Amino acid sequence: MPLTSPPIDELADEVLATSDTALPERAAGLTVREFLATGPTLDEFWTPLTVLNADALAHNAATIQAWSTAHGMELMPHGKTTMAPALWWLQLDAGATGLTLATPGQVRTARSFGVASIMLANALVAPRALAFIAAELADPNFAFRSWVDSIETVEAMERGLSATDAELTRPIDVLVELGAHGGRTGARTLDDAEALARRVTESPVLRLAGVAGYEGSLGHDRTGHALVAVRDYLSDLLELHDTVRAIAGDEEPLIVSAGGSAYLDHVADVFEPAIEADAAAGRRTRWILRSGASLLHDDGFYHGISPLDAMRNHSHGPTLVPAMRGYARVVSHPEPGLALLDGGKRDFPYDEGMPVPFGRAADLGGPEEPLVGASVTALNDQHAFLRSTAPLPLAIGDVVSLGLSHPCTAFDKRRWLPVVEGAGSTRVVDLVRTFF
Fold first, then answer.
1. What percent of the chain has pLDDT over 70?
2. β-pair partners for 146
3. Distances in Å between the alpha carbon of 26 and those of 32, 44, 48, 405?
C-alpha cells in the first residue's frame, strides 16, 4: 500500500516529468496519484534503477521501534539517510518520537512536512539558520535541540542570534556533545565537556538539555579493538550525563542520545544499568536512539555489522531485512568473464562496499536466475564492472539485480524511487520523493 501520511499527501499531487530519471515516459504530465492509478509495473521503468520494498520497510520500521522500546529507549531515526518525508512519517506513525537531522536545511525541509520534534545532530552556528529556528520556536508544539562541542560554538550561537535580531520566545535547547580522540566532532575530554556544560548554563539564549554523541565513528567492524573503543566511549558518555545532571538539576528531563545502526546493541547494553537506575530514582531521563539506516538495512556494510541482521541475531527475534535493490542492464560483454552494466557511481552507493550481483533476468521484474561466482569489482561514473573467473551467462540487454550497501548514499541519486509491494512483486504501488 502507498507510504503516505496526511502531512505528505500533497506529494501525490506533484506532476511527473520526462526529466525524472528512470520513470516511464508515459508518466510525464501525470501527477503521482494519476500515474499510480494506472497500475504501473517495474518493467516499464528505465535502468539504472533503485527500487524499494514496501513490506520490508514496514517490517523494519516495526522491528527497530519495538527493539528500541524493549530496551527503554525512544527512537528518533536519522532522517538524512533518506531525506524522504514519506519514510520519515512511516517511522513517526510507527512510534518514533521525532527525527534526527544533520543540517539546518534538512531541518527546514522536515518542518515543511510537519515534523514537530527534531534533533540537529550538529552545531547550529549560521546566523540565518539560527534566526529560522528562533522563529520556529514561537510554535509551542515544536521541540528542537542541537549539539554543542566547544565554548566557541556557544559564543558563535550567541553572536549569530544577536546579529540577526532574532526574537527568542524560549531558549534553544542544546546537548553537550562528547567526542573522542581520533573521532569526529565533540569535546575531546570529560573536563572540556563539563566546562562547556557550565558555560551553557550562563547563556541567556541557550538551555542545557543533556548529552549526546556518536559511537559509530570509533569502529568499522566488530573486532575486539573496535568494540572496546565503542564501549569505553559510551561509558564516558554516561559519566558526562551524571556530571550534566548535577549541573542542570532534575527539574526538566535530560536527554542522553547515542546510537547509529552498527553498535546499537552495545549502546543498549552499556546504557541498561543507568536506564534502570534513573527509572528507580524517578528521574525522567530521555534515552534516545538515532539509528537511521535500520529502516532500509542493506546487503553490504550493515548486513555485516548490524546486531539485528539475521547473520548475527541469535535471539530468534525479528531481524532487519534489506528494503532496497538496484537494477542495471548489460550494455557490453567484451570478454567471457566481464560484463559492463549501465549503472555506476552516479547511480548506486559504493563508499561502503560495491553492489552485490544476485541474479539475471531478461527484463526488470522478470524471473531471475542466480549469478554464481560473479562480483562487481569497480564502478565508473555510469558503468559497473561485473567480473567472474568463469564465462558469465549474460546477454546484451539482460538486467542484473544488485544488493546495495549503505543506505545513506543510496537515496541522493534519485528524485523519485519506485516502491513495489513486496519480494517478487512487479506492481509499483508508490513513488518515494527525496529532497537532497
1. 98
2. 120, 174
3. 12, 9, 18, 31
Do 88 and 224 have their domain in common? Answer: yes
106 and 145 co-located in one domain: yes
| Domain stop point among 243, 276, 292 | 292
Q: Where do the H-state alpha helices sit in 166-323?
A: 190-201, 224-248, 264-280, 301-305
* Structural domain contains residue 138: yes
Domain that holds residue 34: 6-51+322-433
Strand 324-335 with 338-341, pairing: antiparallel
Q: Does residue 308 lie within any of the structural domains? A: no
Query: How buried is residue 27: exposed, middle or buried, by Cβ count under 10 Å (0-12/13-18/19+)?
Result: buried
Query: What CATH number is given to the structural domain containing 373?
Result: 2.40.37.20
Q: Describe the crossing of helices 54-70 and 85-93 by its angle, rounded to 10 degrees.
A: 50
CATH value at residue 269: 3.20.20.10
Domain count of the fold of the chain:
2
Task: Read off the pLDDT of residues 183-238 as tens digits, 9 standing for 90 and up.
Answer: 899 999 999 999 999 999 999 999 999 999 999 999 999 999 999 999 999 999 99
pTM: 0.96
Other Cβ atoms within 10 Å of 378 Cβ, number: 13
Listing DSSP states for 351-398 in one string gives TT---EEEEEESSTTS--EE--S-EEEEE-SS-EEEE-SS-----TT-
CA 203 to chain centroid = 32
Q: Which of 86, 166, 183, 90 is nearest to 128 (CA)?
A: 166
Cα-Cα-Cα-Cα torsion 276, 240, 146, 254, nearest 10 degrees, comes to 40
Answer yes or no: is 317 within a domain.
Answer: no
